[in-house]
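Progress against Task 2.4 (sequence-to-structure conversion) is shown through the following example record, which the project officer requested during the mid-term review.
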Amino acid sequence: MQDIVAPRLPVLVPSEPAPAWFASPSTAFWPSTYWFWHNIPSRAVIAAQLGAMLDAGFRTVLIQARLAFPRELYLGEDHLDAYRFAVGEAKRLGIEVGIYDDYSWMSGHAGGRTVAGHDALRERHLFWTEVTGADGRASVGGIVSFFMEGLGRAGMAWCYEEGRVAWDEWRIVSAVAYPPDIADPAVVREVTARFLATGDEGCEILADMAEVPPDWHVAVFVSARCRTSRLVNYLLPETARRFIEVGYEPYRAAIGDFFGDPVKYMFFDHPYCGFYRWKQHAGDLGNSLLHADRLVAAAAGLGVPYGVVLLSLIRPIGPATTGLRAAYFALYNGMLHQTFLGALSAWTRQHGLGLAGHELLAHVGGWGLADGFPSLDSRTTLGVDYFGVEAFRTHTTVDASNYGPQISARMGDSVARASGRSRCIVEQYSAARDPRVPFAAGLWGLTLEEIRAQALRHHLFGARQFLFHAFYQTSGSDGDSEPFSNPRFDFPPGINFEPWFPLFADFAAESARLSAFMEDAAPLRTVALVYPLSTIWAEGGGHPCNTLFGAWARFLSEEGIGFDVVDDRALAGGVIEEGGLRLRSGAYRHIILPGAAVLPDAATLAALAAFAAGGGQLTFARPVPNRLAESREAGAERGLPLPPGFAGEEATVPGAGWLAAFRAAASVSPDIAVTDALPLWRWAGAEESGWRVAAFNDQACERRVSVTLPDGACAVSRWNPAAGTIEAVPLEGGAGGTRALTFAMEQNELLCLRIEKGRGRPPSVTAAAPAGDAAPGDGFAVALKENWTLRFDDAEPVPVEVDRGWERQGFPTLSGVGLYACAFTLGDTGAGPVPHDAAWELNLPALRAGAAVTLNGVFLGRRAYAPYRYPIPRGLLTAGPNVLGIEVFSTAANEFYAGTPYQPDGPEASGLLAPPVLACRARLGG
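Structure tokens generated for the chain above:
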């Protein structure tokens, strides 16, 4: 028999009705979705699919033409006519619209329209090579693009005319000679170089070695235009103007009268900068840079020859290296931002729209700053300076990859708060988890449980809205395993083609209510985790600061310690007060420098010293600050003269010592400490009348959570985002004492509390060790192992075992909804008579991936995440006979991956995976 878990504490009592802002949140909090168009849909399809989105709980939609959509039809008359109808239908239904601003992704090319007839706007890149012999010969060749390696034939056909990379208009930018060890960049000499040959594949170069000492090296920098590329040169103002003309203006002409209602913003999606490598590539810069004459002219302000600047990017040239790199990348990124994003921002403001979207996030999918795209040098992208990008947006947006905890939402919220806004939109996409499978094959095996857990974590980390990638117009075709060109393998799942999609609306409402619950409370965050931009500009993605930042971000998140990511350039502008540092984003008593070897300037160093001297807790991880980005003087790399008071715990990785010091110093924020080894994701915020606290247990075990209330009288209520209800939590212990409430949080449980202000310190939330087995009670449990049938659609039911999935019982390629049925009497199960005063519950120990249950014709509920428990109303269960029906909603994986190489380990589990259990809890009262 099975022990029955005792009733959970505290007992909740009914309270006031939920306010409308919580029961029925506004649009900004509900999930949004991309709507992938693979062809021009009919009006009937548009109306039906928008209706399905609304029913599922999506309140914002962004239409996106994907690679299956004929590129020649993009922004044509028929496309815009269908688009206008869709926007009008969205308005009728009360759905808001964001305009996704390009074909497939990589904003700027407008499906090739930007460069059509304007070859000068095609991407131009800077390459470099070294002369390897005394004859002065060098070459650049074997150029490989990110797309050739990652996106295959479909990606190449999309991005390149002729489906191949071909170069022309080769130019020599600079050639410089230098000794093996450079102490002073003044020794670097310019030399003459010329082309021996140029072509589609590369170039041959001859440098004049007549006056170059024998032991010296010669580096040659050349640029070329990719004559077949549809990608653009973001450094050119003409590019942005042309993109707006052919990519934005058609929308204004077609649906401009809908701007503002329901169209709220334009949405850009990580503009790409090529990311080329080549056979002769070497040095400290990971891939090619965009190039333009106006960048060369602007770099004259750096005070040294352009060839010296470029040489500093690929190898150290002495004490000036750090300063030149930081200055160059600040110039490069600033020009990219202002030239391209500045133009988009100006256009949207002119036409009454916001600007949303995101740059390429080098950290996407992880905690470390280079975890997402380790093969790309983020310094060469339009991103990396996330705080700089934010200056042009009205809606902070970030990317998130796959379904594990990651930094994206916290980074987005931090960037927003640094700009005077708050929270963010998180775009969530799926890539194949198995390294044997192309990433674009995606996750048709994704479950709603995984989506819910990820969305709840995003909200607790700072997301206002969850943007799903994507709702599909079509599910693609059989017999075609080509990534991208077959919609079926273009970053699935198409959520509406998942059999469990009918359960999505429940999650959507819960997501919206949690977000609304958090909106009006200011997060309690006393830790500033410094984003080491100056160090990244100087050292790149391989520097320890990238992984150290990730280690600290993960540690703080898992420990439930509130923190903001803070721009290193903002520190100097802060105000020291009451033992802390006040910035626009918040006030911080703790500053962590995760391997920030380079600080922006002397003012930053002074601000940190003043912070430490004033009682702030300063933590730095090796390497410690030893350079200033503003300095190019001799001796600059020998170490900074750290002033008195600039001393903190040198914690290479976070640990118990740092945590103990933090707990001792944390007197103004909740002490959110996990006493077991498992993370509990938490958030706490302050409002005028008190505090709000939320916690989510995504572990596969029950946890006991203790909430310590402040001294003095206060009231506590529990807010249930899933049901939209509020219940009062009775308090004991008198009006004057400190009280603690203990909650048993089961797997996947979300706890939301509102605490009215009393006296003393704010509440603390502590997760105790897993609850383990409950104490024996007077109940019992019966497993229903036999007499089961399974039916799909209108087919005849067949006998089935419930200890393993249907994919192992003759249905390996079937995805859908299976109806399990079992007729039983309690006598058959050995349970005997039904106690008249007992409470029964149905427990489904294991299934994939969602279930709806009826007993004797009465609906008991539906659920898409563990634990699958369904209370049975008193009197419904009889001695017999009883009929139990369980609809199990599978994923789409076994149908859509059948016959492809994308399921190398065979079919995924589907249906019931363990016998259902009837649990009886006796003597609970009437």
